[in-house]
Specification:
The chain has eight helices and seven strands, in the order αβαβαββαβαβαβαα. By secondary structure, the protein is of the alpha/beta class. A seven-stranded parallel beta sheet has the order 4-3-2-1-5-6-7, with helices on both faces. β6 (about 175), α6 (about 180-195) and β7 form a beta-alpha-beta unit.
Length: about 240
């Protein structure tokens, strides 16, 4: 049997042409997002990104822990980046806002609109998720990952993938609250390593800590011999994101 691709009708061709034009203009929107975000964040160095659930209410132990570690990072001289919304994001911004260094919210426009929290010295709203994720990677000297859901895991695995594949420089990726993360780390070792999906050393890309001061110390220890500024070769890697 001969199969033929049906031809588009004139109205369908017009729609296709219109969509193509919109896609072209979208490229300029994306470029503008990168330029604007880079201008907003370029002076906020060094910085640490804190991720976690948007559903964690104020007063919850996870919220209070995120607020405390953000305050200690801010007082230690780190700008603190969060997703700008509620829950752990709010806790991170709140802690940093009370500290000595900038509190930054990288907000995202969502169909069910995410309201920006009130604790941001610098607030930048993205339309495109991937542009926002790139700016987190480019701007942060470390990731601190609190308990969270799919969005938190997405940021965690994105960072692990980029470091593992050599697309970005290695930097501290710290999971806070060991009781929450223990099953995942165990699965990495018992399943992914055992079945040779990853190398055993890949698990060492992650550090699991419980105390805010231990997080601050771990980040300073990591950069003690190399400084926070990316080298020329590391900056060149970022251009390939």
């Amino acid at each position: 049997m001969n199969h033929k691709i049906p031809k588009l009708s004139d109205p369908e061709l017009q729609i296709k042409s219109s969509m193509s034009a919109r896609e072209s203009w979208r490229m300029f929107e994306i470029m503008a997002e990168f330029v604007s975000a880079t201008e907003s964040l370029t002076e906020i160095q060094p910085a640490v990104a804190i991720f976690g659930s948007a559903r964690t209410p104020p007063g919850h132990p996870y919220y209070l822990l995120a607020e405390k570690v953000a305050r200690q990072l801010s007082d230690a001289g780190f700008g603190v980046l969060s997703g700008g919304g509620p829950g752990i994001m709010e806790a991170a911004n709140k802690g940093a806002f009370a500290g000595k260094s900038p509190s930054v919210g990288l907000n995202i426009s969502l169909p069910h609109e995410q309201a920006a929290n009130a604790y941001q010295d610098v607030s930048h709203t993205f339309k495109h998720f991937f542009a926002r994720k790139v700016m987190f990677v480019k701007s942060a000297s470390a990731y601190v990952v609190m308990p969270g859901g799919f969005g938190t895991l997405d940021e965690l695995f994105e960072a692990l993938t980029l470091v593992q594949t050599g697309k970005i420089r290695r930097f501290p990726i710290i999971l806070m609250h060991s009781a929450f993360w223990a099953p995942l780390i165990g699965w990495f070792r018992d399943r992914l390593v055992d079945e040779k999906m990853i190398d055993a050393v890949d698990v060492d890309l992650i550090k699991v800590l419980d105390e805010p001061q231990a997080v601050v110390d771990a980040i300073f220890d990591y950069y003690a011999t190399r400084g926070f500024q990316a080298s020329v070769s590391e900056k060149a890697l970022e251009l390939n994101l």
